[in-house]
Amino acid sequence: MNKHFFSPLVAVLVLSLGACTTVPPTNIHQPMTVRPPERTAILAASGSIYQPGASRALFEDRRARFIGDTMTIVIAETTSATANSNTQLSRESSISASVPLISRLPGKSFQGLQLSAESANAFNGGGSATARNVFTGNIAVTVIEVLPNGNLLVSGEKQVAIGTGTEYIRLSGVVNPYYITSANTISSANVADARIEYKESGVLSEAQVMGWLSRFFLSFLPF
Question: Which of 71, 89, 116, 145 has a 20 to 30 A CA-CA distance from 130?
């Protein structure tokens, strides 16, 4: 085999094998984790022991408050939607015509001719759609930004490798500290602008994706 042909072929095979382990794209707020600022740098700002940006009350629960703090989101998402439609249309029409007695006029051959036409149209249509999704679980997220009003922008990812496949659970959103429990948890129902993803990569997920050539013919073929 020609070496000039063999090298591109190997490159294509390597890229094809690497595509099977590609991380699925995401719409989660970035970055999905962040390191907290250095405490020494904060203390050196004013030289005081008390720092409003890093202090914690002595009798307060350890809830997420600052950049880099972690908290647990309890995912409990249940969506259900049902739509029904029914349409009935009908139309009927009738036309009749007759030629009376013709006298002293041309066209006697049409005398006594009767014409009639009838038409009827009917249409019955109906449709229904039902969708139900359930997503439950827990995921730890990191505070990546503290908004001016005190709300927390959180983001996080959990990867679970099972056999040759990897599952990705991602979540991001805005959390009001008022809804954080004493156990440093919050329900996903109280997360604003929530973005929750459950994706996977591996052999099983690749088998469920239509090839690009099949998608090409499916889009352009008229039959």
Answer: 89
